[in-house]
Structure formats: C-alpha cells, structure tokens
Design a protein that fits this description.
6 copies of one chain form a homohexamer. The first copy, chain A, is built from 11 helices and 12 strands. The first copy, chain A, is an alpha/beta fold and 307 residues long.
C-alpha cells in the first residue's frame, strides 16, 4: 500500500504518459457539463435546506476518499464549487490520476457553509462517477501490465450519453488510452459495412475517402485478418476471439507487416480475469467497454472540518 | 421464466404503478439529451465508415436483448433514430418497464442502412445505460417485495451528472420510486445543517419557510428519531443503521404518530443481500444510491435482419 | 413611514424568514436570464447612441427608487452590469426584501459612462419587474398579517413564461412563500383528474406513486374536504369559496386531523380587499396568481451623479 | 358589443394594419420561449398528477375567454401543445388581434387527456400574459383614436426581460405599433448622451455613424425641439411634457419641417385618462411603457368538453 | 507607407468615426461565437499534440501581421486565449481599425506554452477572417474617398451565416458603415414586394406599419426613383445601374427633396475599379456585398519569442 | 461545357468518392447553424417588408445559379425554408457536388410568398458561401488531376469560426478531402512542439499516447523528413518547400518506407497556378487553407416564377 497521491507521481504518471500526466478535458466541455448538472440539482428554488444554516456561517470541508482508487474529475469539481459560489476557495491536493486510499484528502474547500453544503452533491457526483471509471481503467492497466507491458488498454464509444468527453479524460487519468472519440475520428469496418464489398475494396475505399484516418477492420476469423493486413489496414479488431486465436492472429499480422505498422486490438468479453491472457497473446491493444459503461463509482465524501 | 414483455404487463405494472405504467420523462429533456449525444458521437464529419455502404441500400435491423432485465430508454432511442434520419421507421414492441429475456426483440428499425448503422451506438448507449438502471431497480424491488410488500425502493440524488431526468424515469420503469429530484424539492435536514439549531427548531423553521414541502430529518440515533417525530417531520432518514436498530426506530415512530403520517426511510450501505432485512424491519422506504450510480449496463445489441 | 432599507432589516426579515432573509435564486438561472435579456436589448450592433459619449468618459450613476415598495432583482442587476462591462464597479446598498421609499438609493455604479448607459434599461427592466412582484406580495402579506398572523401568502404557477425562477425569488423577497415550482413538485388533484376515480382512490394512488410529495386536493364543496382529509391528503385547496364557506371547511379539517398535519389553502378571486376575510376565516395558506401574473412594475430609475 | 372575433376582422384589422393583420413573431423565437417554459413547468419528473388519469383517456377541451379583450399568443399556445404531445390536435378559431368576450371559444384541443392537462398551464400563461398586453394596447389605441385618428400608440423597450419579441408581437396584435426593438435599431439621444456635445453635433454625428437609422432627440424644453428639427432629427421625443406644451412643440416642428418628415412623440406619464389630450395636442406617436411592463393578464381558461 | 498602427490613430479613426473609433460588437455575441469555435477546434479530446510540450513550459508569442491591412477581431482573440486558459496574459497593442504592415506586432501572449499553441489556430481564424473583411472595407472606403468624400461605403446582409454581428463590427473597423442588420431593422421594398401595389401605396403602408423605420425603395428605372421620392421614401436603392444612370437619378432626387432627407444608395456589381465612378456620380451610399461575402483573409501568424 | 448537374453524376462523383457522393454534414449541426442564422436575419420583429405582400399570396420561386461552379449547402437551404415556414414545399433538383452553369435551376420553392421572400437571403447566404468553397475546391482538384491523378487536395483547420462542419462538407462536395477536423483528430508535430525533444522521441511519445491516431511531422528540411520516416511517422508535412524540394523529399520517403505507408503532404503558399507542379512532384496530399478561408462566394439567386 502506498500513500495517497504518491504512487501516482512516482510510478504511474512517469511510466507511460509524459511526466506531467494525461491531458485534462477541454474547459468548455467542463463548463457546459457543470452548468447542466447544477441547474439539475439546484432546481427552481435552490437548496431549500441550506436556509437553516445562518447566511454568515463560514467553514471548511474536505473531499475525502473512502476507498482505494484513482482520482478523476478535478476540473469538474472546481467548476462546481465556483459555479455555486465564486467566493469559495478550494485548495486542491491530489491531481487527476493520483492514487487514493481511504482517508486521502483530495481537496479542502472553505467559505460560506451554505454554499459548501449546496455544492456538495454535484461535486461528489462528478468525482465519484469519473473516479470510478479511472479506477476500473487502472485495474485493467495493472492486470495487463504484468502479462505484457507492451499491451495498452483502450476505452470504447460505449460511454454514458452526453459525458463522453469527461469519461475519456477519466480513462486517461486511470492510465489507459482512448479509442476513437466519435464516428468521425477513424474508420472501423464491420461485417455490416461489407455487404457485397470485399475487405480489400473496403479498405481501399476508406483510405481514399479519408486520407490520414486510421482504417481498422473487425475480424471474426483468421482469414479476414490476413486479408485486412494485405489490404493495408492500420489495425485489426479481433472480436470475441479466445486468447489462443488472438495469438494465432498476432502471428499472422507480424508475418505480413513491418513492426509497429499494424496494430492488433482484442475486444469483446474481456474481463479483469481474462485480460492478462489476451495481453500475453500479444495484442497491442485491448479495448473494454465496461470501463465506461459499467464502472461502479469510487466512494468519496465531504467531511466538515471542526475548528 | 416468462415470455419477454409479458411479465411487465400482467405482473409488475398492474401491481403497483397505475396500469398504464410509470410516466415517461418530459419530451423536452429527451430531445436535449439526444441532441447532445448525437453531436458527440457523429463528430464533425459524421460517420466515416458509413460511406462504405451504398447510399441507396435499405434494410431492417432489430434491437435485441442479450440478457434478462427491464427495458428503459424507449423515447431516447426513438428520438435518436429520427434525429439521425427522419425517414427511418421504427416499430417499437416492448414498453419501458417491460421484462426482457435474451433474444427479446425490443424494436425493429427499417430504412437506409447507412442511417441505421450510424444511429446504432447512440441508441444502444441510451438503452443499455437506462435499462441497466431499471434492471437493478427491479432487483431491489423484487428483493424487498417478498420481505415486506409495503416497503418501497427509492432512488437518490446520486445520479450521473446531466442525466438525472432520464435516470429517474428509468428507476420508475424498474418499478421503484423517486426520492426528491433536486435540492429544491424537499427539505432534508442533516447533521451539518443543525449547528446550534435543535431538530425541533430546524423542522419548525423549514415548515414555515417552505409550506407544503416534505421535511425529512436524517437520524443517526433513536433519540433523534423521537425528536424529529415530535417536531412534526414528514419522514425520518435512518442513516447507516442496522436492521435491528431500524426496527427499533420504526416502533418509536409508530408509537408517536398516526398511521401513514410519518415515513421511515432506511439508507446507507443497503445491498441486494441485506435489503430484505431492512424491509422486514418495517421501513416504509429504502433508498439506494447504487441503483443510479453503479448499475452495470443491460446488454442489448442491434442485429441486421437478412431478407 | 420608515427609512429606506430599515424596515426590511428590523421588521420583516427578522419576523418570518430566518434573519438572513429569503434565499436568492440559483446563480445559473440568473446568468442565463441576463444573457438572454442583454442579447435582446443590445441587438446585433450594440448601443448605437452610446457612440456619442466619448469612450474615455467615466462617471457614476445611482439606481434610485421613485416609489414605495420592496426591492427584488439585485443579482440580475449585478449580472447585467458586469455582463455589459466587467470593469463597472457596483456598490449595492439595499438587499432584496428591503423597503424602498421615493429617493432610496439602491446602488451606485461607477465606470465608463458608455457602459452605464448601455446597461441601464436591462438592469432596470429586471429590477422594476421583480420589485413590482415583491411589492405586491408584501401588500398581500401585510393585509393578511393583521387579520391572522398564522396565515401565509403563496404564489402560484401563473408566472411569466421563462421567468419563474426569478419571480418566485421575488415573491420570497416580498415576504410571501412559494407554492409548487413545477408540475413535478407536488400532486394537486383537480376535478379533471378524477373522472371515474374517487378522491380516496386518487389520494392513495398519488401517495403510492410519489412517496414524500405533498398531495393536495382541490375542493369545491365541504363534502369533498371531508373526503380528502379522510383520504390522507396533505392539504386541501378551497377554490373560489366565500370566506364563510372557507371558515366552515377549516372547522371540518380541524375536527378530522391532528394540528398542523393538513393545510387549508384558499385560492381563486382573492384580492387585497378580501384577503383579510379569508385569513380571518382560518386559512393556513392563501394563494394569489395576481402576485406574479398582474403586478405592475415598481418604478426605479437611474440618475447620473454630477461631480 | 360585437360577437367574439368579429370586430377584429371587420373593424380593427382592416382599418390600420394591412387586412391580413399584423405579423406574427419569428417562429424561432416562439420555439425557444416555449421550450424554456415547458422545461420550467414540467420539471424533472413531469406532471405528477397526470398519472391519475388513465393513459388511454382521450378527450377535448376548449380555451375560453373569461373577459373582454384582445387575443395574442396563438403561436406560443400551438407550440406548447405540440411540444407536450405531438399527437394533440388543435382547432384554432380566433386569430391574434381578434376581439374576445366572456365565453369566446379561442381554440379546441383534442387528444390524450393527460397531455391536455399537462399543457394547460403553460399554454394559458402565454395566452393570458400576451393577451393582457394586447388588450391594454387596444385600450390605448381606442382612447387615442377618437381624439386624433392620426396619432399612433407605441410600445417601448420596457418589456419583460427575455420576452421582448413576443411582447412586441402582442402589442401589434392589440393594434398598436412598435418603437425600436433594441439599442441597435435607432439612435435616441438623451440628456445623458450630450455632455459637452450640442444637439446639432450629436445629430450630425449619429447620422454620419449610422446611415439610414432613425435619429430621435429627447427634449425637455421647446428650445431643444427647435434645435433638434434644425439639426435634422427624424423625430423628437417630448418627455413628461403637459399636453399644452406638446401642442406648442408640435407647432414648432410643423413650422420648421416638411409634412411627415419629423415625427413628434409624446412619452412619460401617459395614462388611459390623459392619452386623448396628448393625441389632441397633435402628437404623431404616443409611447407607453405600461403596455408591456404593467399590463394585468387577460383571463382565459381551459374547459373540458363533456361528450 | 505609414508605421503600423499609426495611420489608424491619426488619419482614419479621427476623420470619420468619433475619435475613439467604431464600437465593438456586444460582448455576449463574442462569448458565444468563441465558445462555439473553441468547441469545434479542441474536439472531444483536446489538443493531442500539445501533450508533447512539458506542462510547465512557459513562454511568449506574438501575433504578427504578414501583410498590409486593417485589424479586426481583437475581442474574439482575447476571449479565445482566456477561454483556453484563464492564466494566459495578453498585451494587446493595436486597436481594431488600426493599420497593419508586414511585421506589425498586434499582441503578445505569455503563459503556458501548451495553452498558447492550443489557442493559436482559433484566435488566428477570427483575426484573419475579420481583418480580411476590415481590409477590403478599407480599400473600398479609400477608393471612394478620393472620388467623393461625402459618399459612404456600406455592407449588406450577405454575411457569413452565424457571424453577422462580428462581421458588421469588422466592417466598422474598416471604416465603412452598416446597412440594416436584419429584416427587422428597416423596410426595403423590392419588385417582388410590389405585386399589384404601387410604390406610393407600398411606402405609405410601410410608414404606417413601422413608424420610425427607414423605408427604402429599390429602383431599376429613373421613373421609379421619382415615384419613390414623391411617396416619401427615406432612401432609394439603385440596383445594377451604370454610373451615368446613377448620376441622373441623383439629380432627380435632389430636385424633389430637401437636402439630406432622401439618401441615394448604389448597389449591385460594384467593384474596387468602378466604385469611384459611382461615388463621383453622387451616390450617398454604396453598398458592397463582397466586403462580407468574398473577402480573402488578412494573413496574420503567431511567432514564438525566443528569450 | 456540360449540362448543369450532369457532369457531377457521370464524371466526378463516380470517379473518386463512392458513386453516391460524399457524405452530408450531420443533421444536428445543420439545424443548429440554420437556427442561429435565422435568428440573426429575422431579428426581433421579423421581416418588416414582407407585410406588404398579402398574407394569402402563394407563388413559386427558383434558386438559380448565375455562374459556373459546384453546389453545396442543400441541407442548410432546406432547413432554412422549413424553419421559416413548415408549409413551404421545396423540389430540390441538383445534389451537393453537382456542377452548375449560369441558369441552372437548383431548386424550386412553392408556398406563401411572404415566407419565400423572408427565407431568401438566409438560404442564399448558405448556398453561396458553401458553393463558393466547393467550387474553389473543385478548381484545385481539377488543377491537380491532370498533373498527377494520385494526388489528393485537402482542406485545413483554417475555416470560418463556427462553420467548420459545414465547410468541410462543402470541401467534400467539391471533390476534395478533409484533413483533421480538430486538434483532437490527429497529431501534427510542429517545430514549436519539439523544444528539447527530437523528432524520434516526439513521434514515439505521440504514438504511445494516442494509439491509432495519425502522427504527422512538419518538416522544413529534407533531413527532418528522413528522421520522421525513421521514427515511424504516418505522414510528413512539407511546409513552404519548392516543388523540386518536395520531389527530393518524396524520393527520400519512398526509399525509406513501404508503398502507401507514409503520406507526403505539401502545404504553404499553394495556388491554382503552382498546384500542378506540387502534384507532379509526387505529393500524395496537397493542403490548401484558401479553399475555406478565402473562397469568394458562388453567385446564386432566387427568381420568382410568373405563372
């Protein structure tokens, strides 16, 4: 067990992402998401209960972790506190991507007690949801790292509607990487796109239409893998294959392409339990929808500081 | 095992919500959420891969369940299909709240294949996320029903930021009920609100300030329960108590109030395993944050129909 | 006659709302309303006339009341001045809810004269409209207070479309209270909802569907009042009854319920002239649509300060 | 007394505005205002009470006037009904600008009862507010018409924040006309704009800067009127003058300008009682802030039709 | 050739617009346009490449002109830098309307290098597009000034969709003037509006319907010009006439109206080459769609400052 | 010269993009852009002049080209007509990408004349601006095609702020292709990103951080080209090189990489005149900012159809 925040600085962040850590989500997206969340939680009358607290009560509170995990959502929480009350002062102590243990103090907020109590739930909803994603991402990263340090874990487009930008940033905070962010980012040829078109024609047409875009081909059988590599695909997506079949396909790819030119991605039905086997099979990338669509929250809370 | 969709009509929906089922979310909220989700998934260039499919290809596809669970998100999926292409025709077959088994056909979409493929992921992201919530809600409802049919399961404000309106509708589709939708809906007095104020003064002040609003008091100890009931609270929230302590508090409430006038809510650390014990202890309401903050998705997919 | 601002501090605000006064509207709603109002008033080219004033002219102006009344809209005016020009400095002198007499100086604004003149109308439109509502609310509060200090004045959902959040805050500034803020806040059973359903079934169904929500029943006849109380309604709405009929219904309610458990609300055709009679009849609540839908403005103006 | 709707067609609309009546507000503005109003009134959960009505209940209801006045807001009401439920069918019977008497049937709505009841308040809030404005506008138009048929009544920029587009359309429906819609529409030189600048220089500068824009000068004294006319102003605004002073200023203007080239506008403190005197004094235009800032609503309601 | 920025201060700005220069666009419009542009350019993941720059690298960069022209877009660029990173400090050196030569330093930005590089393209896109418009406007102004200093150059409604407010401000920065900003600003009667209506009736109807609005009549033939002047039009628009025909029409107008009361506008097919001839023909106004719809950008770039 | 619309179908569209032509922009983006443009052009009062046309006048009008060029913007124009008046019927006759000659009838609109006239300018502003871009794109495509049919023309991120999605679709309509749509789409390493980092490290870091993203390196000298290819870049951007230097760099790339694996892009200072030389030099891609930032409009107009 490491101290809160320490592991992040010395181990993870320096190891894979550049030393200053993965990039934050764009500010504009943070602002829009927080404005929506605050409107939603304050409702038309504001916080009915806050009225019980004298308007001039001033205090401090700490955002504290109640579990082990990885932090994400810092910008959202900061924007929430300032959106409720610009006079709140926040001393943020652990960066996104930092490791949390029960009791880790993530941030300290000081100012009018009414405002702190009103902002509490929205700030925590962001932090808990996004840190839950970062934490599950990290578990997959760790599971894969021991089996094959060259394998990287990816997210998918299976994100919560309206929150993709923030969730993809949380995935990065967890030490994993982002697959395409939208249908406009890369070509991913699936069975349904092929129809009467062969893989070779599909790849050629995609390359011609979208110069510079990655062209990946989803394959169910090894023959398709060979066909895709011959066609010049940038990557093959091995869907729902066993690790041993993945291993066979990796060999096919390596035999037909220069090193590093065609990525092999395994996807479908991958769990923390079987991820190491897929990594050991030599996949360059393992993509896991569950990281964004089924991560339970990481439990964080707000504790008042008694003076 | 019942047929898909059947159980919903004859068993659940008729039993608790009025026979026509729980209400849909407001259309305006659905439209806004879908517009955001489509902008997010289509990106600036639209679906690069769809170009491989001839523009005049027309076909059919079915939204099919791959697991047991409860459906939610119908309006979102309909709005997604028409948002991508108003010429798509959707034949929806199972209402929100309906029970799904693997293979249940939820809807059939027909029209241009390009549009169907482009809309697929966004429609499924809504359905899978919201049905996941409905399903977990139903599991809690079922767990509680056998132990105490009078106990109702509630959601909380621990929802995914920006999606509260849709998630609360999914909770209703699952057969559970909604706690306050925002800080402006009801008064919920917690320790942090009390300060130098006693419970009696807090309840009186809240009643005076917000006529008609429910005034609930969070209690950690039985003495507070008695105090809250004497003060005229509408409900007491028993936080993180054991079932036997809940049972003791229920007795205190029943002894001090007319039947049905003060609701007892149990909350904090409630799981599918211990929920029956809390119900058996006599709680009127059991609120569970996990229903909205940690439900895994329900797996649904889109299958092309070969003619 | 009291001095401007004084009555607010010593009499009204301390008497009913907690000493720090009724809560402001949520900031997010203020920002959105002001952005819309500024876009509307500045138009595509901005203030054509301001160009006549040299760009480097700096000055001061005062927001001054021209009549007796209650102030509301402070946050809107502040946001308007900073929205037109962040360098304007505003010294605000009277809080929302404060009493104004002709000549009362509400605020002093200093900075570029062009910006002050450009912001003038939008800031005054907010202040005059919202203070008009607060003032009419106060007149009803005063009218009722002498007849029955236990009776409270409420607003309704008959608000100006798009301004409900701000108008409800103005009602609070006037010393009155808020009825439900939207259709989602409480159940209010009217004739049209009953159809073949009796009152008892309606109340039971509402209670079951929406735990914790106030369930109020609109009654045209005393028999319905008894029925509603027996059914467990939280409140009865006596619609368009004479004061003497209200008095009869109050007696029915008191005889059938524990003190403070069922609220009696009088509504429909209530004016400043007859409000005292309704209060004297024992109504707990008197709701008045005119407060928000027909209040004339309170006249405030902007006076330049000559140095 | 004429029949409802008749007077509008034969008398008012044919007399002043082109026979097809004054123009509607732009659709885009209507859509945005209705979307905001619906979000506001439906809240996060929708209409809790509507659930009491069986989902398959179908019925009819009529929008009926309860008072004498002029209708406005038709497009807003139509958009509200379709925004709540696109399957509602509305048979609209009286155009904006039509005269209403108690009992006049403005429209009949048919479809699901739940939807009709849910849409009721928002539709009525628009109709009552905007018809109130149209009605007060008409009272001023009528008061002025007998004293001087050449005098026209204008609104001002003293509108409810965020609703200017709709309120200006309601003014037109009432038979009055619109003053500038924003600060960007015309130059209106007031004392505060002059500083060290004389009227002649101000008018010349405004003419040069904004070719084609109306340049109006606010005057407190007859000497300023002469100065403004000499300077080439398009109009003079006589602020808070007595009718006899207005009469004197009209003579000054007529003596110094070709017919119809300089408009004389009276403003400030104009009421239904003194408006005829201002018209008789020869003012071309009389502008009245109260039309938009202090009009009480026109009472309209929704009556279910029993079959 | 003058020094950068100098000509603006001493020559242009003092000569025509008041000495402090033409007015900026409303702040609200700037904020909305920049938020959209940033969302568009940052995309869902932000600037992938910026990650290569260490997070703690701090530096300076200069916005530098690479060509001769007129600056516009200052507020947009400032808002862009602060929208990407509020810690960026910008030292702005040349006002909108200032003259630029190759090498002119418009502004210096200092702060985190990552943020500077990320903001670069969006800030430049605004500056280059709007300065391109200002520059073309200035070329027309200069071309006309020598031929007839009393002739003013106007823009039209042929602007880039969604950018009209900013483009009209750029036109002003270029020393030209704005024609009506929207269909709601002035009446412009064209052939298609006349139908069975004669010019006299059209002008009278327009004057009656929209008091205070400019009423302009588009004329293809001199007879129409006379008719429009007799009818009391504020201006005539001579569409696609030769300079000599314009000259004839000017004479007609001058003979039939008091000086300065009827403006003559030439429009259609006007280029830098023939604009002097139109000015010499005596047109008061020359409107040129190309200024906003076909101006090439002015080339500005961002240069890092090596320390 | 070919007939209008014909060349598009038989020659261009079939030759490069799949036969059904390049993809439309996402509907959501079209709707948002049109709503903004209509709000902008209708203003607060709507079309003042349209009032002159009787409300029941019905007619037809044609969108007609006045020049040679390529059409783009069809969806925007359709949305504009239906946004102004949903009863307008549009018969669209030439697809985006179709070739226009003077007189080509692009579409015919029928319905209320008022609505047609009101929608005219906004619809044309979209069509003229976007077709101007499509036309310039086509000129570059044609210029390059004869010199080297394998060379493709690309746009850049130098687009009009807020219109990138629509402009990139217009580029596709013109037969050219899209470079990255945002900073989040691909890695493009420039001098400013390198600092103390060598090209090899930069490419490796980018590859590691953003799996699947294209990694392109901007090169000023041939040595950098070799370095980038060795480092595994997906593409090299040759900035401001002469055609002969481009030719040398192409040879370097071909010698060091498998066919089709590393793209060579020429950029900077490319005009219609020198583009063939760059194509002949063997560049795979030629990117031209002017296509989106400096294209003059294509002249289209609206002609009423006399019956």
């Amino acid at each position: 067990m490491t101290d809160a925040g320490t592991r992040a600085d010395t181990d993870f962040l320096g190891g894979t992402w550049p030393s200053s850590g993965p990039p934050d989500p764009p500010l504009e997206a943070v602002r829009a998401a927080v404005a929506r969340a605050l409107a939603e939680d304050l409702g038309p009358l504001g916080d009915l209960t806050a009225l019980l607290v004298p308007a001039d009560d001033v205090g401090r509170a700490r955002v504290v972790s109640r579990a082990d995990g990885v932090l994400a959502g810092r910008l959202c929480a900061l924007e929430t506190f300032s959106g409720v009350d610009p006079t709140l002062v926040v001393d943020w102590r652990i960066p996104d991507g930092g490791w949390l243990a029960p009791g880790s103090v993530v941030a300290e907020v000081s100012g009018p007690m009414r405002s702190i109590l009103t902002a509490e739930r929205t700030a925590l909803n962001f932090l808990c949801h996004l840190s839950g994603i970062a934490t599950l991402a990290r578990h997959f990263v760790d599971a894969v790292a021991t089996a094959n340090p060259a394998t990287r874990v990816l997210d998918t487009r299976k994100t919560t509607p309206g929150l993709r930008v923030l969730e993809k940033a949380a995935v990065r905070a967890g030490g994993a990487w982002n697959h395409r962010a939208s249908l406009s980012d890369a070509v991913l040829v699936k069975d349904n796109h092929l129809g009467r078109l062969g893989i070779a024609e599909a790849v050629a047409s995609a390359r011609r239409s979208w110069p510079g875009a990655m062209v990946e081909v989803e394959c169910d059988r090894p023959e398709q893998v060979s066909e895709a590599v011959e066609a010049g695909a940038s990557a093959v997506l091995l869907d729902n294959m066993t690790p041993s079949l993945v291993s066979e396909c990796v060999a096919l790819v390596r035999a037909r392409s220069a090193p590093g030119t065609v990525l092999v991605e395994a996807s479908g039905g991958i769990t923390l339990a079987n991820a190491p086997a897929y990594a050991a099979a030599g996949a360059d990338l393992i993509s896991v929808g569950a990281i964004t669509h089924s991560a339970p929250i990481l439990d964080l809370g707000l504790d008042l500081v008694e003076d």
